[in-house]
Amino acid sequence: MKTQEKEQQFTEVVHAHRGIIYKVCYMYAPQGMVDDYYQEVLCNLWQNFDQFDGRSKRSTWIYRVALFTCISFVRRKRPASVSLTFDLSSDEDAALRERVEELHSVINRLANLDRALVMLWLDGYSYDEMAEVTGLTKANVSVKLMRAKNKIKEMFNA
Description:
- By secondary structure, the protein is mainly alpha-helical.
- It has helices at about 5-30, 35-50, 60-75, 90-110, 110-120, 125-135, 140-155.
- Helices cover about 75% and strands about 0% of the residues.
């Protein structure tokens, strides 16, 4: 593939899947560093763009690259916990913001793999797709996800 064609295709793919990339970055990046994580993911996507072989959906491949890039970046940087920011004004929005922040805080305390599985589950990925993204077996995904959900329940009840 010519460089210009590759750049055009890459730009289209990133634009179509930027929500996935930002979501993963947002879950792992400390406040104010989401753009740094996003750039790191883009670099890895570009470096590996020709290696996508079509055995999975493009979105699954992007999720996997983003996930492992962010986990790697977290291990190198050892950032503080992630916090959400909102620009909501009504009491109802404030209550929702509080609940979302609480859930995010709980998810953020999970181990990296558990956090990834919960994110994938919340995004509606099937167990087969989660296995493909994480490299686990479908049965292992099921067990680890059940344990992660139980940890979340325990943390909420504590």
